[in-house]
Amino acid sequence: MTTSSLNSRIIDTLRRQIATATLAPGHKLPAERELATLFDTTRITVKDALSMLETEGLIYREERRGWFVSLPRLEYNPASRSHFHEMVRAQQRQAQTQVLSCETVVAPCELVTEMGLSPLSKLIRICRARCIDGRTVLYVEHFLRPELFPGIEQQDLSQSLTALYQREYGLEYSRSRFDICPTAVRGEAASTLNLSQGSPVLAVSRINYDQFDRVIDCDREIWRHDAVRIRVESLSF
């Protein structure tokens, strides 16, 4: 068989087994060397086939752990007021949040413009890892205006920040501005998501306004692309 035919055979076989749940969500695939022996081909051909299935979101790779069958994607409506834990629970999944760091930083240059700040302004930067059904799928950085959230460093930051803002500071989101685009993962986000540097991810950046129409924070989300589906319904005309 030609390399192209072998590649198609591997893809079709794995795709059918995933579709019928013979290979169940979360199942670890055999090592690339074992798959090469099974299909009587080379590891290069196997890697090409697995990369195609990864692009489709059917499987995912974790650094130093191997390949796994993807779990169902989380449906994510950025326009919804539902917070992460509430959104995950509503889809009969389990959510967890781990706080990685909380520190005061000089505002990144692009946020000075985006958030209408003065040069060299300070922001509170909170980094968190978010899991669905025990798998880390989201790395998020929150940049908060410190004058609006005094003492937030002492709060339980593993909970919903949306609820915390309302309960402790009397602030509610009124509207948000989103930017959504595919990108390549780097730095702490890559290690947190168990991805190799440069792997494809989905980036969601959100500038949030409160009920007084002030910019209060910015969220930068990095999603494993196989873990999420963006779904937005248009308003009726």
UniProtKB/TrEMBL annotation:
Domain HTH gntR-type residues, every copy: 4-72
Phylogenetic lineage: Bacteria, Pseudomonadati, Pseudomonadota, Gammaproteobacteria, Aeromonadales
Entry keywords, A to Z: DNA-binding, Transcription, Transcription regulation
Residue intervals passing through the bilayer: none
Keyword Transcription regulation: yes
Coiled-coil region(s): none
SMART domains listed in its UniProt record: HTH_GNTR, UTRA
Protein name in UniProt: MFS transporter
Transcription regulation listed as a keyword: yes
GO molecular function: DNA binding; DNA-binding transcription factor activity
Domain of life: Bacteria
Biological process terms in GO annotation: negative regulation of DNA-templated transcription
